[in-house]
Design the sequence.
């Protein structure tokens, strides 16, 4: 038996999220069905489970396959069964004990948004978010950097073992493409709770608009009170990188 590390990009707007749900299109279900068509029955593990509408340019999953599958052959047969909404970025053979979630030491998300009217061709991939100055937005993002208990920035209904996370960096910058103005936020942490990114972003955007103070944000971080429970739209969110110690792969394509 070989174990493979598969790096995926996908259009989250085509799915009801990553995790398999009976009767709904999901990334996990689509991948599992594609593998079954190749007579590969394996439990799929992932670096993280993105929500409905959230995209990825670098999601990492792992699965086992019989030894007769070489890396180039498997990728060549798998990709056509995932088209058009999922793309195999890379496929590598790794040790049998590799787990894409537990072996990762850092994750990066990017959020792309604008306050200008969106065309129907961008609406699924860029969020519409009114905002104030980028200086005030950055002030709010700075509050989240460091080690915090993000229990009040976690979607209810989830039950993690612990809610403490380390946010290594959080910053924003303007981005211009063909006369269109966007803002990009980058967040890196050792891990994220369910909907944590979207809850933090909504709170930061509310501060930039003058609706929340830095004291309000710090009070929610300190678990004193909830001041913002709304989510930023999912359409602008991308899982953009998962970090692993090197080397991991035995071979890859």
Sequence:
């Amino acid at each position: 038996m070989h174990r493979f590390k598969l790096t995926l990009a996908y259009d989250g707007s085509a799915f009801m999220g990553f995790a398999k749900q009976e009767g709904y299109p999901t990334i996990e279900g689509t991948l599992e069905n594609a593998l079954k068509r190749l007579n590969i029955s394996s439990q799929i593990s992932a670096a993280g489970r993105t929500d409905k509408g959230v995209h990825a340019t670098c999601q990492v999953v792992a699965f086992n396959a019989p030894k007769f599958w070489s890396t180039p052959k498997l990728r060549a047969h798998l990709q056509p069964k995932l088209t058009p909404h999922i793309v195999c970025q890379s496929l590598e053979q790794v040790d049998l004990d590799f787990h894409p979630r537990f072996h990762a030491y850092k994750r990066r998300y990017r959020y792309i948004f604008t306050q200008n009217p969106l065309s129907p061709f961008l609406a699924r991939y860029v969020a519409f978010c009114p905002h104030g100055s980028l200086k005030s937005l950055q002030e709010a993002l700075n509050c989240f950097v460091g080690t915090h208990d993000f229990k009040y920035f976690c979607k209810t209904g989830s039950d993690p073992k612990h809610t403490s996370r380390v946010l290594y960096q959080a910053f924003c910058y303007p981005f211009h493409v063909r006369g269109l103005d966007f803002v990009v936020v980058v967040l890196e942490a050792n891990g994220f709770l369910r909907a944590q990114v979207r809850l933090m972003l909504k709170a930061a955007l509310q501060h930039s608009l003058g609706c929340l103070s830095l004291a309000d944000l710090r009070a929610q971080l300190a678990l004193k009170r909830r001041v913002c429970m709304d989510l930023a739209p999912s359409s602008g969110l991308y899982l953009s990188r998962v970090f692993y110690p090197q080397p991991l792969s035995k071979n890859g394509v």
User: Anything to note?
Assistant: The chain is about 20% helix and 30% strand. The longest strand covers residues 164-177. The chain has a mean pLDDT of 95.
